[in-house]
Amino acid sequence: MNCTPNATVKHMIEALGAPHTEIEFILVNGKSVGFEYLIQPDDRIAVYPPFYRLKPDDAVPLRASLTAFRFIADAHMGALARLLRLAGFDTLYYPAIHDDEIANYCAHEPYIVLTRDRELLKRSQIIYGCYIRPNKPDLQLREVFERYSLAEHVAPFSRCLVCNGTLHSVDKNIVLDRLPPLVRERHSYFLKCSGCDRVYWEGTHWDNLRAQLNSLLTPTSDN
């Protein structure tokens, strides 16, 4: 590929179609470089994705290390956002969210963008992101878990599946008038959302969600 004068290696990578968020480290003539490296004639360039496990000890970091996992999902990632909330992860999402809004959020906070839109991940405001390859939500969640090693950070049923607010235990008497008759009789433990005020209890839906989450966290067989 012919590059324009003073082109950075980041510009070259994205011109070839790969978002910068999908690059873990870069070698130029065998030496690790950052995104700002200016390409020279006859340079030999090798680019490696996040899933590449043999990272050199002296690799130049392309971005600061994350200290927390906060996700923002684009408008097509609603099912994945719900599963991440089920697992206890702060996940910003609403159906009408626009790409410009996502980029603006990322300009102010270190969100990890979840999307199948490569062009969105190329935006300069977005530092962290994951291009989601599978179509099925359960496989999407598994991909995100493996990429960011999330299994040890799981906190099931600590976030509202609808609004992403945090859940806290609440006395049954406080929410008694909001409960269906059978729920009043059979359950004594309740959670309430700090955001939208929804009430959760350990019904059949709870068991189904827990089983779904447990199955997603089970390591896949190598066979």
TrEMBL record:
Q: Where is the Ubiquitin Mut7-C domain?
A: 2-53
Give the source's domain of life in one word. Bacteria
Q: Show the Pfam families listed in the entry.
A: Mut7-C (PF01927), Ub-Mut7C (PF14451)
Domain Mut7-C RNAse span(s) in chain numbering: 70-211
The record's listing under InterPro entries reads: Mopterin_synth/thiamin_S_b (IPR016155), Mut7-C_RNAse_dom (IPR002782), Ub_Mut7C (IPR027798)
What protein name does the entry list?
Answer: Twitching motility protein PilT
Per the UniProt record, the source organism is Pseudomonas asuensis
